[in-house]
Amino acid sequence: MAWALGQVEIEDARLVVGLAALETRRVSDPIRDELWELVEGLDELAWDLQESEAGDETLVGYAHAFARARAANALWYSLFIPASSETVADCMYEAQAVAGDMNGLRAVVRQALANTYPTV
Known about the structure:
- By secondary structure, the protein is mostly helical.
- The protein has one domain (2-116).
- The protein contains 6 helices and no strands.
- It has helices at 2-6, 13-24, 29-51, 56-78, 85-99, 102-116.
- It is globular, with a radius of gyration of 15 Å.
């Protein structure tokens, strides 16, 4: 999820805590709840920008807000341990929605799988 978060400009202590929890695999409901509050706030900001009737600057602001919300949501989905196939799929959707960079995401996934399941 560091890849998805690295695709956008976003700083929030809840993201730092979420990434640390993911890395140490010490995830708790309060961590997920705090991160969900961030996701909801970012989504609300994106929707407000999308619904406003301003010009091109608002569309750019919406795209950035949408990407930040998707990155935070990808991290939120990754905090479900053990992961189900549904949460993995949701996490992957959110991660690709950040920048639309499927090739970059594929490379990250391939590397993670290679590190987890090395071939002989």
